[in-house]
Design brief:
The chain has 11 helices and 9 strands. It has about 300 residues and is an alpha/beta fold. A 9-stranded mixed sheet has the order 1-2-4-3-5-6-7-8-9, sandwiched between helices. Helix 5 links the parallel strand 5 and strand 6. The longest helix has 19 residues. It is globular, with a radius of gyration of 18 Å.
């Protein structure tokens, strides 16, 4: 969310006006993403570098308020044998004219059907913050309904789902109060004071907060795939203890790596994060029968989950 709004704030006034015109469009089908190279007909999957021959696909899920463009540069940093598939949720970026989901269960049901045609080869999930929750529940949904499971889950900056939410629910609060929270998140003041932009963006932000705040964990058997769990050393929201608790949801080997940065270390420590994921994916590509393991040159803890 912060990355998106900082990019908007950096636009000159005429470009912000053009963006607002696009945001005000209400369409029944997704608009073409001007930045995307290839997107699925239903708009769920964006591939900035299509690679139909890639032996492995990595599906990426953004944090609240973000979208597929968060991962636009990832294909440049990952092994050429990996096709990066960025998930674009309704109500986000070029799908802004569609209603955003406010509950996890119907979202992952729709997502499971949308990505199933792309699961014709080994695949993995990466999710940051809200995206970690969605990717985890999608993995469980695919197991229930499609008998498929990712080769590995990369889970970043989100507490284990069985833990209680310590945050006050804010999605229903008046706009001015909601803006106070967004200001604390680091949203630029010029964005918060732009009424037209806020009117366009607030529904999506509220929906994402509601999706997380109303989530209800239901116990199921652990997944059979390993987890690579990432946290920010300066993240005041998510502690290493919160992240360690993910281990009970996997029957395979898990790792926890703490990277420099706060909640959005996805951007500030992107080189370290992508290096770790790349190293892991290279192992998987070169030894398909081996488990997908990750090693990060920072503070980490590893053990059997």
């Amino acid at each position: 969310m912060r990355d998106v709004t900082e990019r908007i704030a950096a636009l000159p006034p005429d470009k912000q006006t053009m963006l607002l015109q696009r945001l005000r469009q209400k369409v029944s089908r997704p608009m073409t993403d001007l930045l995307a190279t290839h997107s699925s007909p239903d708009g769920w999957i964006v591939r900035y570098r299509q690679n139909a021959q890639a032996p492995l696909r990595l599906f990426c899920f953004s944090y609240a308020g973000g979208g597929a463009s968060v991962f636009r540069q990832w294909p440049d940093a990952l092994p050429p044998g990996v096709e990066v598939c960025c998930i674009q949720l309704p109500g986000h970026e070029y799908r802004l004219g569609e209603p955003a989901y406010t509950r996890v269960a119907p979202l992952v049901r729709a997502l499971a059907d949308a990505i199933y045609p792309y699961l014709d080869r080994p695949f993995a999930f990466f999710g940051h913050s809200m995206g970690a929750l969605i990717s985890f529940e999608l993995a469980r949904q695919l197991r229930r309904t499609h008998d498929r499971c990712p080769g590995r889950l990369y889970l970043a900056a989100y507490r284990a789902p069985q833990l209680p939410n310590p945050n006050i629910k804010i999605y229903h609060l008046p706009s001015e109060v909601f803006k106070v929270v967004l200001r604390a998140e680091g949203i630029p003041e010029m964005i918060l004071q732009n009424e037209e932009l806020m009117q366009a963006m607030l529904p999506t932000l509220r929906a994402d907060f509601e999706l997380c705040d109303t989530y209800e964990y239901r116990e199921e058997a652990p997944l059979g795939c390993p987890f690579s769990i990432f946290g920010g050393l300066e993240d005041v929201r998510i502690s290493a203890t919160d992240l360690e608790a993910w281990r009970i949801h996997s029957d395979a080997a898990c790792s926890l790596s703490m990277l420099p940065g706060s909640h959005f270390f996805l951007h500030s420590a992107q080189d370290l994060l992508l290096a770790a994921i790349s190293q892991d994916l290279e192992v998987q590509l070169n030894s398909p029968t081996q488990p997908m393991l990750v090693s990060v040159p920072t503070l980490s803890a590893n053990r059997k989950g």
